[in-house]
Amino acid sequence: MAAYASCSACQGIGSFKCPDCACPRCNATGSVEDSCPKCHGAAKVTCETCRGEGRVLTKKGFFSDKYAQCWKCKGSRQQDCTCRAGKVVVRCPSCNEGRSPQCPHCGSTGQLKCSTCNGSGKVKSRWFTSLANMTVEQLKFERNTRNDAIASDRDEIQGIRSEISDMRSQLKELEDYWQEQMEARSYFTKIEGGAPVGLEGIPRAIRRLESDAETINNKIRNAKAEVAAIDEVIRVKLAGT
Ligand SMILES: [Zn+2]
Ligand SMILES: [Zn+2]
Ligand SMILES: [Zn+2]
Ligand SMILES: [Zn+2]
Ligand SMILES: [Zn+2]
Predict the structure, then answer these.
(1) Which of 59, 63, 87, 128 is least surrounded by CB atoms within 10 angstroms?
(2) What pTM was computed for the model?
(3) Which domain holds residue 23?
């Protein structure tokens, strides 16, 4: 039993998007495409290398200068504009970051605080709420019950750990024994009965015990969270008297 649950009204987000002030012009994104001011939408500007001449001076002569075709624009007199296909992205002039200014509902933040969870995205679970109806004595009893459970769960984990360590040394012995057997015989001679079953059985049993220990650890974690929640209620109750 967790003290808090995710708020179902807002899916745990804590707020809703305000439906009243989304800017229709930019679809609430806050930016729109506009014609590029440099090329006026043409996507091409005058070639900077030849300044739109289409040719560049290569040799200054006494009677006549020598020109060659501009290497940059290849004589077209224009080069590509830095914009994207004649368009640039600009701030939407009709709104403030996607929201029309002065929304009376959300103060133009675009977010309405969820009233169910007061914006936190979390609500007290039914179990946590039910604690408020208990007396301090009852609460202490609930807490002690959990602390006792935590203590016995810890003992159980301790037992499992020592069981695992016994099994590990058993396995080590078995592996050493099997290694000797293999080395004592010629490589191609079949050993009667094959490998001892424990070589596979013990690791499997260890894995099972480790997963049991993990399950109990989770139980302890939950119980600790409950104890913390109960302590919080006790503190509030004692402060109120
Ligand atoms: Zn709004
Ligand atoms: Zn807009
Ligand atoms: Zn442009
Ligand atoms: Zn040019
Ligand atoms: Zn909520």
Answers:
(1) 63
(2) 0.52
(3) 7-30+92-123
